């Protein structure tokens, strides 16, 4: 019977165009997005562009970069300028027919399709016969020669849309001689003049090595900065900002902020839960900072701020004892849990046993003891793999196997009296950690050798400690829900009881707006003892129902709802800012290509200012690179940028923490950021971190 009904409705859909329109995957929003043409920087209104080298910006060049990337280490920052009235040879070179490959590398970021669209439009405008190849599934597409030739139809279908669906993406790296040989072979087969790599820090690192490797072959390599984490920011050695943020950050931050703002509304309505929101940001807390500004969540943890913490009490104690205390610098898990509990208890005291907390996924990287464990395990795993020519995680597949190996290391250290990276003290400390967290710290690293913070239940670790300490505070009578004095009076008057008789016995602050039950009253038994002691009731009497009700109302129950914001934000359709930014990055990448550049990263200078001040530039990648530990050894990589705790935007957040915590009577200061827009003027048309830094700079100037 169900089958017949399905057939009937299938025929109905087939015959009814109105129903087809209603259920179609093409709606008005999609049509409007595809049809919108992003604004272009003034320089791109010229028919032709040229590059102007500048010595204005200086970099501290790492000796290893100079050694490994000799042909591109001398690159300079290049401004994209209008070519005016160029001569014939310039026009011929600029408009030369080209074969160009483009590839996405790493996780998706909103705006990627517009990088391709901008590049495609510029290339086809210069010469309609140029061919643009999109390599499929990331760098593996280059190695395996898997591609699709991009056409108007393909590109137009993805304009202003999120994701990397046009050509997909992957996390492979071209990091071996064989992969490099196959990549060169692909470039030769397609007769590529240039390859554009759209990716994060590792991908742009890869771009630098490819540029060096293919320099003598005459194949240009151009990088484009992409990551929602916002940790690709470029400054010269004097601190001048050349690239303020990567594309995708603004959209992801808005997507997270909208969802978290909804939780603020829910929390303030249901008054029952603390919403614990973990947001992406493995190494840096840029997204958490932006979300804090967008939403005014009650508590936002910024990892870089925790790393700056100094425990003055421990330092003073160490001075008196005449011994250094290295654990006094940087926050510990225990101390962090106490800080969180303090905010929760203070809100509860004014009747708000609920709220919203934002935690960056990489928060553990900034915690003293956790960072030490991560560094040690990275080294232990790398040394094991190197020594045994096998894989640590294959040989020790379950947690108990790994723990047994660590115990053997500690035993060797103790019995032989030799220095090893893992000793008995390490083993004892590690065994105090919950098993699920031990497993997380010992999990397999990603393809780049990075610890996978997103796979660890950071919030579970923190909230476990928080709940334990809150229970201790509850037993001590220090964690109580404050009750409105109006509610208290009404409740007692319903039972014909005098509030002023019971009030001084029940509350430690009788007369205040929110009344807090005395610390000594922690149970019905101690409540009765207090009433009897003050002669309010006799030992044989029952506690008045209304009084017992008031007491029970003061007993808190800490309930949490945990949320993770990552993949949803990076898959969002881009904001107007990211649509325009990414499209202009594509135009910049083509200008670099058409003018013969290689080993350069397409960027927009003055991105933090109004659109009229944006300046397309090419930034040399090689001088940005330095040695960093990866998989237990030093590798030359593009450095990440973390939150500057001295920046105006962070200092503003710091100044407003108390206000946003809302540990006072009255409504919370939650902010509603509004939906992601791609056209029209809106309040959040740029990251708020940009706006505040720029406003502060102007005020100080």
Structure commentary:
By secondary structure, the chain is α/β, with parallel strands linked by helices. The protein contains 29 helices and 19 strands. Strands 1-2-17-16-7-6-3-4-5 form a nine-stranded mixed β-sheet, sandwiched between helices. Strands 11-12-10-15 form a four-stranded parallel β-sheet. Strands 8-9 form a two-stranded antiparallel ribbon. Strand 18 and strand 19 (633-638) form a beta hairpin. Helix 11 (249-270) crosses helix 12 (286-295). The chain is globular and about 105 Å long. The N and C termini lie far apart (77 Å). The mean pLDDT is 92.
Based on secondary structure, the structural category is: alpha/beta
**Average pLDDT metric:** 92
Helix content: 40-55%
Sequence of strands across the biggest β-sheet:
1-2-17-16-7-6-3-4-5
Total number of strands: 19
Radius of gyration: 30 Å
Can you tell me the CATH topology of the largest domain? Rossmann fold
Briefly, what CATH class of the largest domain? Alpha Beta
End-to-end distance: 77 Å
How many discrete structural domains?
A: 4
Main sheet characteristics: 9 strands, mixed
Shape: globular
Q: What share of the residues does DSSP label as strand, in percent?
A: 5-15%
CATH architecture of the largest domain: 3-Layer(aba) Sandwich
Number of helices: 29
